Amino acid sequence: xxxxxxxxxxxxxxxxxxxxxIFVVKxxxxxxxxxxxxxxxxxxxxxxxxxxxxxxxxxGGGPQATEMSRKLGVEPQIVNGRRVTDEKALEVAKMxxxxxxxxxxxxxxxxxxxxxxxxSGVDAGLITARRRPKTWVQPVGEAEGREVDFGxxxxxxxxxxxxxxxxxEGGMIPVISCLGADAEGAILNINADxxxxxxxxxxxxxxxxxVTDTEGVLKDVNNPGSLVSYTDVEEIEKFKQEGxxxxxxxxxxxxxLSALKGGVRRTHIINxxxxxxLLREIFTNSGCGTMIVEKRERQAYQQTELPSxx
Length: 310
Description:
This protein is α/β, with parallel strands linked by helices and 310 residues long.
């Protein structure tokens, strides 16, 4: 996209529209773990900052935490896609999320001459959480439900965005790992999608963009060509009732819905393995993933579409 003067010209209306606005970009561990994909994404994020968009990046790291656990001789416990975090798993989370992965992302920003600062939810009281109580679940593949103690897993109570706002005003990109703490300082592991949507709500962000390694919402999970380009809350709820949203896509969609209810204007789910996916989603009408909005915003979007590249 960026090497075409024609496409750049078509991006100008979007640049004007989003200059000075806040985007929260959440990137999953599978993208962070692929150096080429990570560098491509960071290049796109850096370009957005250069044209005046304020970016906050939130990252996960589940695959890397699983790999590190096994290297240390500890088999990770996953229940319905959620990681059980005992004391050993929490130490791994601290090493991986706030340590190796955060530094890897910062190094990529450094390579693209973009000022970025690593944070966790523990820094400056950014994220206050409470330990999740024992929860009754029906594990996939098990005949009966059971009570599960997720250990040091946190549910977000509040977000204090002042540290993030300070960095944004200073022209820097905050890079937030998915750890928080309770009021007494106990470290908690928090789902990265939840961190991203909570931060987006606290900042009154214009957009929440969830970058994953799969396509966005599909009408048929077995057909990549059935991608839903844009949709609204009511249609998403219908998809959920029909069982079209399962597995890892469900928490991502739920994060988008929560963000919309909290005042975020538009939310997106894109495949970060595709070159320039973020730029295409932001700067073209057709996009490349799924945009989820409130119904009234969908109607307004359809009535005031900006021109797509030729």
